[in-house]
Amino acid sequence: MNLSPENIITKNITSDIGSIFNKGKIGIEKESLRVRDLRISKIDHPNKLGSALCNKYITTDFSEAQLELVTPPFKDKMKTLHFLDNIHQFVNLNIDDEILWPFSFPPQTNSEKDIRIAKYGKSNDALFKEIYRKGLASRYGRRMQAISGIHINYSLPPRLLEEISLQERQHSSSSHHSEVYFRMMRNLYRVNWLILYLFGASPILTKDQLNKESKDFKKIDKNTFYLPYATSLRMSDLGYQNADRVKLEVSTDSIDEYISDLVDATRNEFKGYKKIGEYKSEDFCQLNSNILQIDDEFYAIARPKSSNISDMRLTSKLTNYGVDYIELRSLDLNPFNRNGLDLETIYFIELLFLYCLLKTSPKISKDEMKEIRNNDSLVSRTGRKPDLNLSENQKNISLKSWALRIIEEISEIAEGMDGAKNIYSEALNNMKKKVLEPDITLSNKLLDKVLNEKLGFSELGNMIGLDNKEYFLKSEKNKDWELLEKEAMSSIVDQRSLEDKDSKTFKEYLGDYFSS
Fold first, then answer.
1. 126 to each of 34, 53, 64, 113, 289, how far by Cα in Å?
2. Whole-prediction pTM
Protein backbone atom coordinates (compact mmCIF):
# COMPACT_ATOMS: atom_id res chain seq x y z
CA MET A 1 0.00 0.00 0.00
CA ASN A 2 1.56 3.29 -1.13
CA LEU A 3 0.59 6.21 1.07
CA SER A 4 3.45 8.53 0.29
CA PRO A 5 2.25 12.14 0.13
CA GLU A 6 4.44 12.54 -2.95
CA ASN A 7 1.97 10.31 -4.81
CA ILE A 8 -1.29 12.20 -4.96
CA ILE A 9 -3.55 9.19 -5.58
CA THR A 10 -2.43 5.81 -6.86
CA LYS A 11 -4.17 2.61 -7.81
CA ASN A 12 -2.22 0.90 -5.03
CA ILE A 13 -4.24 2.90 -2.49
CA THR A 14 -7.68 2.32 -3.95
CA SER A 15 -7.42 -1.45 -3.68
CA ASP A 16 -7.89 -1.28 0.10
CA ILE A 17 -9.71 2.01 0.60
CA GLY A 18 -13.02 0.43 1.57
CA SER A 19 -11.61 -1.35 4.61
CA ILE A 20 -9.41 1.51 5.85
CA PHE A 21 -10.65 4.92 4.73
CA ASN A 22 -14.30 4.53 5.73
CA LYS A 23 -13.47 4.34 9.43
CA GLY A 24 -12.88 8.06 9.97
CA LYS A 25 -15.22 9.79 12.42
CA ILE A 26 -17.25 12.92 11.78
CA GLY A 27 -18.98 15.14 14.33
CA ILE A 28 -20.97 18.32 13.68
CA GLU A 29 -21.22 21.64 15.49
CA LYS A 30 -24.10 23.72 14.14
CA GLU A 31 -24.89 27.29 15.18
CA SER A 32 -28.42 28.69 14.93
CA LEU A 33 -30.08 31.81 16.27
CA ARG A 34 -33.34 31.65 18.20
CA VAL A 35 -35.67 34.14 16.50
CA ARG A 36 -39.11 35.49 17.32
CA ASP A 37 -41.10 37.88 15.12
CA LEU A 38 -38.16 38.35 12.73
CA ARG A 39 -35.90 39.51 15.57
CA ILE A 40 -33.10 37.78 17.47
CA SER A 41 -34.58 36.53 20.72
CA LYS A 42 -33.81 38.46 23.91
CA ILE A 43 -35.11 35.65 26.11
CA ASP A 44 -32.75 33.68 28.36
CA HIS A 45 -31.44 30.32 27.20
CA PRO A 46 -34.45 28.03 27.84
CA ASN A 47 -34.20 26.05 31.05
CA LYS A 48 -35.60 22.96 29.27
CA LEU A 49 -32.44 22.88 27.16
CA GLY A 50 -30.32 22.58 30.28
CA SER A 51 -27.18 24.48 31.21
CA ALA A 52 -25.41 26.13 28.28
CA LEU A 53 -22.21 25.74 30.29
CA CYS A 54 -22.44 22.00 30.97
CA ASN A 55 -24.73 20.42 28.34
CA LYS A 56 -22.47 18.56 25.92
CA TYR A 57 -25.07 18.50 23.12
CA ILE A 58 -26.75 21.91 23.38
CA THR A 59 -24.79 25.02 24.31
CA THR A 60 -24.53 28.61 23.10
CA ASP A 61 -21.92 30.34 20.99
CA PHE A 62 -21.46 34.12 21.19
CA SER A 63 -25.00 35.25 21.87
CA GLU A 64 -27.52 34.11 24.47
CA ALA A 65 -29.81 33.39 21.52
CA GLN A 66 -27.17 31.63 19.41
CA LEU A 67 -27.52 27.92 20.03
CA GLU A 68 -24.71 25.52 19.23
CA LEU A 69 -25.85 21.97 18.58
CA VAL A 70 -23.10 19.38 18.98
CA THR A 71 -23.13 15.74 17.87
CA PRO A 72 -20.69 13.10 19.07
CA PRO A 73 -18.31 11.85 16.36
CA PHE A 74 -19.53 8.73 14.53
CA LYS A 75 -17.94 6.41 11.97
CA ASP A 76 -21.39 5.99 10.43
CA LYS A 77 -22.09 9.41 8.88
CA MET A 78 -25.80 8.64 8.72
CA LYS A 79 -25.75 8.37 12.52
CA THR A 80 -24.08 11.78 12.75
CA LEU A 81 -26.84 13.39 10.71
CA HIS A 82 -29.61 11.51 12.54
CA PHE A 83 -28.26 12.65 15.90
CA LEU A 84 -28.18 16.27 14.65
CA ASP A 85 -31.75 15.90 13.42
CA ASN A 86 -32.79 14.56 16.83
CA ILE A 87 -31.18 17.50 18.64
CA HIS A 88 -33.09 19.82 16.32
CA GLN A 89 -36.38 18.20 17.26
CA PHE A 90 -35.59 18.41 20.97
CA VAL A 91 -34.71 22.10 20.64
CA ASN A 92 -37.71 23.03 18.49
CA LEU A 93 -40.10 21.47 20.98
CA ASN A 94 -38.49 23.32 23.88
CA ILE A 95 -38.22 26.90 22.62
CA ASP A 96 -41.93 27.81 22.78
CA ASP A 97 -42.93 30.05 19.85
CA GLU A 98 -39.38 30.78 18.69
CA ILE A 99 -37.83 29.36 15.52
CA LEU A 100 -34.29 28.45 14.55
CA TRP A 101 -33.09 30.96 11.97
CA PRO A 102 -32.09 29.03 8.80
CA PHE A 103 -29.57 31.54 7.40
CA SER A 104 -25.96 32.21 8.36
CA PHE A 105 -26.52 35.97 8.46
CA PRO A 106 -28.87 37.08 11.24
CA PRO A 107 -32.07 39.03 10.62
CA GLN A 108 -32.00 42.83 10.71
CA THR A 109 -31.16 44.36 14.08
CA ASN A 110 -31.87 47.93 15.15
CA SER A 111 -28.96 48.07 17.55
CA GLU A 112 -25.99 45.97 18.63
CA LYS A 113 -27.57 45.94 22.08
CA ASP A 114 -30.39 43.82 20.64
CA ILE A 115 -27.86 40.94 20.56
CA ARG A 116 -27.37 39.72 24.12
CA ILE A 117 -23.99 38.29 25.07
CA ALA A 118 -24.28 34.72 26.33
CA LYS A 119 -24.29 34.09 30.08
CA TYR A 120 -23.31 30.85 31.79
CA GLY A 121 -23.91 31.31 35.51
CA LYS A 122 -21.78 32.40 38.47
CA SER A 123 -18.84 29.96 38.46
CA ASN A 124 -15.34 30.97 37.38
CA ASP A 125 -15.78 28.83 34.25
CA ALA A 126 -18.96 30.75 33.45
CA LEU A 127 -17.44 34.19 34.06
CA PHE A 128 -14.46 33.26 31.88
CA LYS A 129 -16.72 32.43 28.94
CA GLU A 130 -18.86 35.54 29.38
CA ILE A 131 -15.94 37.96 29.72
CA TYR A 132 -14.26 36.43 26.69
CA ARG A 133 -17.43 37.19 24.73
CA LYS A 134 -17.52 40.74 26.05
CA GLY A 135 -14.05 41.14 24.62
CA LEU A 136 -15.17 39.76 21.26
CA ALA A 137 -18.08 42.22 21.22
CA SER A 138 -15.78 45.17 21.91
CA ARG A 139 -13.19 44.08 19.38
CA TYR A 140 -15.31 43.00 16.42
CA GLY A 141 -18.91 43.95 17.11
CA ARG A 142 -21.88 41.86 18.17
CA ARG A 143 -23.40 41.65 14.69
CA MET A 144 -20.37 39.92 13.24
CA GLN A 145 -20.22 37.50 16.16
CA ALA A 146 -23.89 36.57 15.63
CA ILE A 147 -23.17 35.14 12.17
CA SER A 148 -23.73 31.36 12.23
CA GLY A 149 -22.17 28.42 10.43
CA ILE A 150 -21.40 24.72 10.41
CA HIS A 151 -18.21 23.19 11.79
CA ILE A 152 -17.26 19.67 10.72
CA ASN A 153 -14.89 17.75 12.97
CA TYR A 154 -12.98 14.94 11.27
CA SER A 155 -10.64 12.34 12.77
CA LEU A 156 -8.64 10.01 10.56
CA PRO A 157 -9.15 6.24 10.78
CA PRO A 158 -6.64 4.84 13.30
CA ARG A 159 -5.53 2.10 10.91
CA LEU A 160 -4.85 4.69 8.21
CA LEU A 161 -2.59 6.60 10.60
CA GLU A 162 -0.78 3.34 11.37
CA GLU A 163 -0.36 2.55 7.66
CA ILE A 164 1.05 6.03 7.00
CA SER A 165 3.51 5.59 9.87
CA LEU A 166 4.68 2.28 8.42
CA GLN A 167 4.92 3.72 4.92
CA GLU A 168 7.00 6.64 6.13
CA ARG A 169 9.03 4.45 8.50
CA GLN A 170 7.95 6.52 11.47
CA HIS A 171 6.92 5.47 14.95
CA SER A 172 3.16 5.71 15.36
CA SER A 173 3.12 8.52 17.91
CA SER A 174 1.10 11.63 18.73
CA SER A 175 3.84 13.83 17.24
CA HIS A 176 3.81 11.97 13.91
CA HIS A 177 0.02 11.88 13.87
CA SER A 178 0.01 15.65 14.42
CA GLU A 179 2.27 16.15 11.42
CA VAL A 180 -0.09 14.05 9.29
CA TYR A 181 -3.02 16.22 10.38
CA PHE A 182 -1.06 19.40 9.67
CA ARG A 183 -0.27 18.42 6.10
CA MET A 184 -3.95 17.64 5.60
CA MET A 185 -4.87 21.01 7.11
CA ARG A 186 -2.49 22.91 4.83
CA ASN A 187 -4.22 21.43 1.79
CA LEU A 188 -7.63 22.30 3.23
CA TYR A 189 -6.45 25.92 3.21
CA ARG A 190 -5.48 25.53 -0.45
CA VAL A 191 -8.85 24.15 -1.58
CA ASN A 192 -11.11 26.12 0.75
CA TRP A 193 -12.32 28.23 -2.19
CA LEU A 194 -14.04 25.09 -3.54
CA ILE A 195 -15.94 24.68 -0.25
CA LEU A 196 -17.10 28.29 -0.51
CA TYR A 197 -18.26 27.77 -4.07
CA LEU A 198 -20.14 24.52 -3.43
CA PHE A 199 -21.61 25.22 0.01
CA GLY A 200 -21.70 29.00 0.28
CA ALA A 201 -25.28 30.07 1.00
CA SER A 202 -24.92 33.67 2.09
CA PRO A 203 -25.07 35.96 -0.97
CA ILE A 204 -27.56 38.20 0.85
CA LEU A 205 -27.13 40.25 3.99
CA THR A 206 -28.99 42.92 5.87
CA LYS A 207 -28.18 46.62 5.78
CA ASP A 208 -26.71 46.62 9.28
CA GLN A 209 -23.95 44.20 8.16
CA LEU A 210 -22.64 46.55 5.47
CA ASN A 211 -19.84 49.04 6.06
CA LYS A 212 -18.82 52.29 4.41
CA GLU A 213 -16.43 50.49 2.07
CA SER A 214 -19.10 48.08 0.81
CA LYS A 215 -19.41 48.55 -2.94
CA ASP A 216 -21.19 46.89 -5.85
CA PHE A 217 -24.07 45.72 -3.66
CA LYS A 218 -27.52 45.66 -5.21
CA LYS A 219 -30.65 46.47 -3.27
CA ILE A 220 -33.45 43.99 -2.69
CA ASP A 221 -35.40 46.21 -0.34
CA LYS A 222 -34.56 48.91 2.18
CA ASN A 223 -33.08 46.37 4.60
CA THR A 224 -31.43 43.73 2.39
CA PHE A 225 -28.65 43.76 -0.21
CA TYR A 226 -26.77 41.20 -2.31
CA LEU A 227 -23.88 40.65 -4.69
CA PRO A 228 -25.00 38.96 -7.95
CA TYR A 229 -22.26 36.31 -8.03
CA ALA A 230 -21.53 35.97 -4.31
CA THR A 231 -21.36 32.55 -2.68
CA SER A 232 -20.43 33.08 0.97
CA LEU A 233 -20.39 36.66 2.22
CA ARG A 234 -20.07 35.08 5.66
CA MET A 235 -16.50 34.16 4.69
CA SER A 236 -15.76 37.52 3.05
CA ASP A 237 -14.41 40.71 4.57
CA LEU A 238 -17.98 41.39 5.77
CA GLY A 239 -18.10 38.19 7.81
CA TYR A 240 -15.53 36.28 9.80
CA GLN A 241 -12.69 37.65 7.68
CA ASN A 242 -13.67 41.09 9.02
CA ALA A 243 -11.08 43.72 8.07
CA ASP A 244 -11.13 44.99 11.65
CA ARG A 245 -9.37 41.84 12.82
CA VAL A 246 -5.66 42.05 13.45
CA LYS A 247 -3.73 40.45 10.58
CA LEU A 248 -2.27 37.56 12.54
CA GLU A 249 0.06 35.07 10.89
CA VAL A 250 0.01 31.62 12.53
CA SER A 251 2.31 29.06 10.96
CA THR A 252 0.94 25.76 9.69
CA ASP A 253 4.43 24.40 8.99
CA SER A 254 4.43 22.25 12.13
CA ILE A 255 2.53 21.79 15.38
CA ASP A 256 5.40 23.37 17.33
CA GLU A 257 5.40 26.54 15.21
CA TYR A 258 1.60 26.71 15.30
CA ILE A 259 1.58 26.48 19.09
CA SER A 260 4.41 29.01 19.44
CA ASP A 261 2.64 31.59 17.26
CA LEU A 262 -0.66 31.17 19.11
CA VAL A 263 0.98 31.44 22.52
CA ASP A 264 2.81 34.60 21.43
CA ALA A 265 -0.46 36.13 20.26
CA THR A 266 -2.06 35.47 23.66
CA ARG A 267 0.90 37.08 25.46
CA ASN A 268 1.64 40.15 23.34
CA GLU A 269 -0.43 43.26 23.91
CA PHE A 270 -2.14 45.07 21.05
CA LYS A 271 -2.45 48.81 21.53
CA GLY A 272 -5.78 48.95 19.72
CA TYR A 273 -7.30 46.62 22.30
CA LYS A 274 -5.63 48.26 25.28
CA LYS A 275 -8.01 51.22 24.97
CA ILE A 276 -10.94 48.86 25.57
CA GLY A 277 -9.53 48.31 29.04
CA GLU A 278 -9.85 45.28 31.27
CA TYR A 279 -12.07 46.69 34.01
CA LYS A 280 -15.08 48.96 33.98
CA SER A 281 -16.99 49.71 37.16
CA GLU A 282 -15.33 46.76 38.94
CA ASP A 283 -16.25 44.49 36.04
CA PHE A 284 -14.08 42.83 33.39
CA CYS A 285 -14.73 43.97 29.82
CA GLN A 286 -12.23 41.56 28.22
CA LEU A 287 -9.89 38.87 29.50
CA ASN A 288 -6.83 40.90 28.50
CA SER A 289 -5.67 43.39 25.87
CA ASN A 290 -3.48 40.95 23.95
CA ILE A 291 -3.69 40.20 20.23
CA LEU A 292 -5.79 37.17 21.16
CA GLN A 293 -7.52 36.89 24.51
CA ILE A 294 -7.24 33.09 24.31
CA ASP A 295 -6.26 30.49 21.70
CA ASP A 296 -9.87 30.04 20.55
CA GLU A 297 -10.02 33.63 19.28
CA PHE A 298 -7.87 32.63 16.32
CA TYR A 299 -10.47 32.27 13.57
CA ALA A 300 -9.17 30.10 10.75
CA ILE A 301 -10.95 28.03 8.13
CA ALA A 302 -9.54 24.88 9.76
CA ARG A 303 -8.00 24.29 13.18
CA PRO A 304 -6.18 21.36 14.81
CA LYS A 305 -7.96 20.13 17.92
CA SER A 306 -7.43 17.74 20.81
CA SER A 307 -10.15 15.47 22.14
CA ASN A 308 -8.89 15.91 25.71
CA ILE A 309 -11.82 17.30 27.75
CA SER A 310 -9.90 19.02 30.56
CA ASP A 311 -10.07 22.79 31.19
CA MET A 312 -6.51 23.13 29.92
CA ARG A 313 -6.00 25.72 27.17
CA LEU A 314 -5.91 24.41 23.59
CA THR A 315 -2.20 25.01 22.99
CA SER A 316 -1.36 23.06 26.17
CA LYS A 317 -3.58 20.19 25.05
CA LEU A 318 -1.88 20.13 21.65
CA THR A 319 1.53 20.21 23.33
CA ASN A 320 0.72 17.35 25.69
CA TYR A 321 -1.54 15.16 23.59
CA GLY A 322 -1.12 16.16 19.95
CA VAL A 323 -3.83 16.54 17.29
CA ASP A 324 -6.83 14.20 17.38
CA TYR A 325 -9.00 15.82 14.71
CA ILE A 326 -9.36 18.80 12.40
CA GLU A 327 -12.22 21.28 12.74
CA LEU A 328 -13.35 22.67 9.37
CA ARG A 329 -15.22 25.96 9.90
CA SER A 330 -16.06 27.40 6.48
CA LEU A 331 -19.49 25.93 5.68
CA ASP A 332 -22.56 28.16 5.67
CA LEU A 333 -25.91 26.97 6.92
CA ASN A 334 -27.84 25.30 4.11
CA PRO A 335 -31.29 26.96 4.38
CA PHE A 336 -32.85 24.26 2.19
CA ASN A 337 -32.17 21.51 4.71
CA ARG A 338 -33.79 21.47 8.14
CA ASN A 339 -30.47 20.51 9.78
CA GLY A 340 -28.37 23.09 7.96
CA LEU A 341 -26.53 20.45 5.92
CA ASP A 342 -27.27 17.17 4.18
CA LEU A 343 -25.66 13.75 3.99
CA GLU A 344 -24.30 14.40 0.51
CA THR A 345 -22.32 17.34 1.88
CA ILE A 346 -20.90 15.21 4.69
CA TYR A 347 -19.78 12.52 2.22
CA PHE A 348 -18.08 15.06 -0.03
CA ILE A 349 -16.32 16.79 2.86
CA GLU A 350 -15.04 13.40 4.05
CA LEU A 351 -13.65 12.76 0.57
CA LEU A 352 -12.05 16.21 0.56
CA PHE A 353 -10.35 15.57 3.90
CA LEU A 354 -8.85 12.35 2.52
CA TYR A 355 -7.82 14.02 -0.73
CA CYS A 356 -6.05 16.73 1.27
CA LEU A 357 -4.28 14.03 3.27
CA LEU A 358 -2.99 12.17 0.19
CA LYS A 359 -2.02 15.16 -1.91
CA THR A 360 1.51 16.48 -1.55
CA SER A 361 1.54 19.30 1.01
CA PRO A 362 4.55 21.63 1.05
CA LYS A 363 4.81 24.36 3.65
CA ILE A 364 2.79 27.49 2.93
CA SER A 365 4.92 30.56 2.20
CA LYS A 366 3.74 34.11 2.87
CA ASP A 367 3.15 34.60 -0.85
CA GLU A 368 1.07 31.43 -1.06
CA MET A 369 -0.95 32.41 2.01
CA LYS A 370 -1.73 35.71 0.32
CA GLU A 371 -2.77 33.76 -2.79
CA ILE A 372 -5.00 31.47 -0.70
CA ARG A 373 -6.72 34.45 0.92
CA ASN A 374 -7.20 36.20 -2.40
CA ASN A 375 -8.80 33.08 -3.89
CA ASP A 376 -11.15 32.78 -0.93
CA SER A 377 -12.07 36.45 -1.17
CA LEU A 378 -12.75 36.24 -4.91
CA VAL A 379 -14.95 33.17 -4.57
CA SER A 380 -16.84 34.46 -1.52
CA ARG A 381 -17.83 37.65 -3.38
CA THR A 382 -17.85 36.59 -7.06
CA GLY A 383 -17.61 32.80 -7.13
CA ARG A 384 -20.36 32.23 -9.70
CA LYS A 385 -19.09 34.85 -12.12
CA PRO A 386 -18.67 33.31 -15.59
CA ASP A 387 -15.05 32.53 -16.49
CA LEU A 388 -13.77 33.55 -13.06
CA ASN A 389 -10.02 33.03 -12.76
CA LEU A 390 -8.19 32.12 -9.57
CA SER A 391 -4.47 31.81 -8.89
CA GLU A 392 -2.65 28.49 -8.48
CA ASN A 393 1.10 28.66 -7.89
CA GLN A 394 0.99 32.31 -8.99
CA LYS A 395 -0.57 31.38 -12.35
CA ASN A 396 -4.09 32.13 -13.53
CA ILE A 397 -6.47 29.20 -13.76
CA SER A 398 -10.21 29.16 -14.27
CA LEU A 399 -12.27 28.15 -11.26
CA LYS A 400 -14.13 25.64 -13.37
CA SER A 401 -11.08 23.81 -14.72
CA TRP A 402 -9.38 23.71 -11.31
CA ALA A 403 -12.53 22.42 -9.60
CA LEU A 404 -13.07 19.74 -12.24
CA ARG A 405 -9.47 18.59 -11.89
CA ILE A 406 -9.83 18.25 -8.11
CA ILE A 407 -13.08 16.32 -8.51
CA GLU A 408 -11.47 14.00 -11.03
CA GLU A 409 -8.57 13.32 -8.66
CA ILE A 410 -10.99 12.66 -5.80
CA SER A 411 -13.03 10.23 -7.92
CA GLU A 412 -10.55 7.39 -7.35
CA ILE A 413 -10.98 7.72 -3.60
CA ALA A 414 -14.77 7.80 -3.99
CA GLU A 415 -14.78 4.63 -6.09
CA GLY A 416 -12.70 2.84 -3.50
CA MET A 417 -14.95 3.93 -0.63
CA ASP A 418 -18.24 3.18 -2.35
CA GLY A 419 -20.44 0.38 -1.16
CA ALA A 420 -23.28 -1.16 -3.15
CA LYS A 421 -25.12 2.19 -3.29
CA ASN A 422 -22.21 4.24 -4.72
CA ILE A 423 -22.92 6.96 -2.16
CA TYR A 424 -19.54 8.68 -2.42
CA SER A 425 -19.41 8.71 -6.22
CA GLU A 426 -22.98 10.03 -6.39
CA ALA A 427 -22.11 12.83 -3.96
CA LEU A 428 -19.05 13.68 -6.04
CA ASN A 429 -21.02 13.67 -9.30
CA ASN A 430 -23.54 16.09 -7.83
CA MET A 431 -20.72 18.43 -6.86
CA LYS A 432 -19.42 18.21 -10.42
CA LYS A 433 -22.85 19.30 -11.67
CA LYS A 434 -22.65 22.39 -9.46
CA VAL A 435 -19.30 23.28 -11.00
CA LEU A 436 -20.70 22.88 -14.52
CA GLU A 437 -24.02 24.56 -13.66
CA PRO A 438 -23.56 27.47 -11.20
CA ASP A 439 -27.34 28.03 -11.24
CA ILE A 440 -27.85 24.96 -9.04
CA THR A 441 -25.45 26.04 -6.29
CA LEU A 442 -26.98 26.90 -2.91
CA SER A 443 -26.08 30.57 -3.25
CA ASN A 444 -27.84 30.94 -6.59
CA LYS A 445 -30.88 28.94 -5.47
CA LEU A 446 -31.30 31.29 -2.52
CA LEU A 447 -30.89 34.41 -4.64
CA ASP A 448 -33.30 33.06 -7.23
CA LYS A 449 -35.93 32.36 -4.59
CA VAL A 450 -35.70 35.86 -3.12
CA LEU A 451 -35.42 37.78 -6.40
CA ASN A 452 -37.71 35.83 -8.72
CA GLU A 453 -40.31 34.58 -6.27
CA LYS A 454 -40.48 38.00 -4.63
CA LEU A 455 -39.87 36.59 -1.16
CA GLY A 456 -38.21 38.99 1.25
CA PHE A 457 -35.06 37.68 2.95
CA SER A 458 -36.53 37.96 6.45
CA GLU A 459 -39.91 36.62 5.38
CA LEU A 460 -38.28 33.64 3.67
CA GLY A 461 -36.17 32.93 6.75
CA ASN A 462 -39.25 33.06 8.94
CA MET A 463 -41.22 30.82 6.58
CA ILE A 464 -38.45 28.19 6.45
CA GLY A 465 -38.02 28.31 10.22
CA LEU A 466 -41.76 27.83 10.79
CA ASP A 467 -41.93 24.97 8.29
CA ASN A 468 -39.02 23.22 10.00
CA LYS A 469 -40.63 23.70 13.39
CA GLU A 470 -43.95 22.31 12.17
CA TYR A 471 -42.16 19.24 10.81
CA PHE A 472 -40.59 18.50 14.18
CA LEU A 473 -43.78 19.21 16.11
CA LYS A 474 -45.67 16.69 13.99
CA SER A 475 -42.98 14.00 14.26
CA GLU A 476 -42.89 11.36 16.96
CA LYS A 477 -40.29 11.93 19.65
CA ASN A 478 -36.98 10.58 18.40
CA LYS A 479 -34.96 7.71 19.86
CA ASP A 480 -32.44 10.09 21.48
CA TRP A 481 -35.11 12.15 23.29
CA GLU A 482 -34.56 10.49 26.66
CA LEU A 483 -30.79 10.91 26.35
CA LEU A 484 -31.13 14.61 25.48
CA GLU A 485 -33.64 15.21 28.27
CA LYS A 486 -31.40 13.47 30.80
CA GLU A 487 -28.38 15.50 29.66
CA ALA A 488 -30.37 18.75 29.98
CA MET A 489 -31.37 17.94 33.58
CA SER A 490 -27.98 16.65 34.69
CA SER A 491 -26.20 19.66 33.13
CA ILE A 492 -28.13 22.00 35.44
CA VAL A 493 -27.00 19.94 38.44
CA ASP A 494 -23.41 20.05 37.11
CA GLN A 495 -23.54 23.85 36.78
CA ARG A 496 -24.74 24.26 40.37
CA SER A 497 -22.00 21.93 41.55
CA LEU A 498 -19.36 24.05 39.80
CA GLU A 499 -20.74 27.19 41.41
CA ASP A 500 -20.78 25.61 44.88
CA LYS A 501 -17.22 24.28 44.77
CA ASP A 502 -15.45 27.41 43.44
CA SER A 503 -12.83 28.35 46.03
CA LYS A 504 -10.61 30.69 44.00
CA THR A 505 -11.03 34.32 43.03
CA PHE A 506 -11.54 34.94 39.34
CA LYS A 507 -8.06 36.48 39.07
CA GLU A 508 -6.57 33.32 40.57
CA TYR A 509 -8.61 31.23 38.11
CA LEU A 510 -7.25 33.30 35.20
CA GLY A 511 -3.70 32.91 36.42
CA ASP A 512 -4.09 29.14 36.64
CA TYR A 513 -5.63 28.97 33.15
CA PHE A 514 -2.86 30.91 31.41
CA SER A 515 -0.16 28.95 33.23
CA SER A 516 -1.75 25.58 32.39
1. 21, 7, 13, 21, 20
2. 0.94
